[in-house]
Amino acid sequence: MHNLKTAPEEADKALQLLERLQDVLESELSLMRERRTDELAEITTYKTELVEDLNRLTQRLAPLLAKKDDPAAARLLEKLEECRSLNTRNGVFARTAAEGARSAMVLLRTTLSFDDVTLYDAKGDLAERREARSFGHV
């Protein structure tokens, strides 16, 4: 069993990791909104490392976290819940964005498969006429 004398130090370390994770989750959402995929891949790797470190640390802190009346435990549990909430929010955003991309692809495939489509300009005049193309072909 782990020595509980180091629990305050480990609790502080866990709190610092959770604060970093919160920052990473906020950055992750910004990067998703801005569609900065290269940076998003990097931050996702860092987020995964933080979560793994936190998982190891919280397993050792289980006896402390079980103490409902301990202020350090309450602070950690509150931060954990905040991080879960932010991660859930980011997951919803990512799923919504992915669904939007899938819908756009379906629309493109449908539009590109129309035979001899006539397009009109903003005044309603005939703008151009194009022939159907298979998606992925010019």
Task: Return the domain count.
Answer: 1
Task: Supply Rg.
Answer: 25 Å
Shape: rod-shaped
* Model regions low in confidence, pLDDT < 50 over at least 5 residues: 1-5
Strand-residue proportion: 5-15%
User: Quick check: average pLDDT?
Assistant: 82
- Look at the helices and sheets and give the structural class: mainly alpha
Q: Strand tally, please?
A: 2
What is the rounded distance between the termini? 66 Å
Number of DSSP helical runs: 4
Described by strand count, sense and barrel closure, the largest sheet is:
2 strands, antiparallel
Describe the structure concisely.
With 138 residues, the chain is mainly alpha-helical.
Describe the structure.
With 138 residues, this protein is mostly helical. The protein has one domain. The protein is 71% helix and 7% strand. It is built from four helices and two strands; from the N terminus they run ααααββ. It has a two-stranded antiparallel ribbon. Helix 1 runs antiparallel to helix 2 and helix 1 runs parallel beside helix 4. The longest helix has 42 residues.
Chain-wise SSE layout:
Blueprint lengths: L6 H28 L2 H24 L1 H4 L5 H42 L4 E4 L5 E5 L8
Antiparallel strand pairs: 1-2
Helix pairs in contact: 1-2, 1-4
Provide tags for this entry.
138 residues; mainly alpha; two-stranded antiparallel sheet; 4 helices; 2 strands; 71% helix; rod-shaped; disordered N terminus
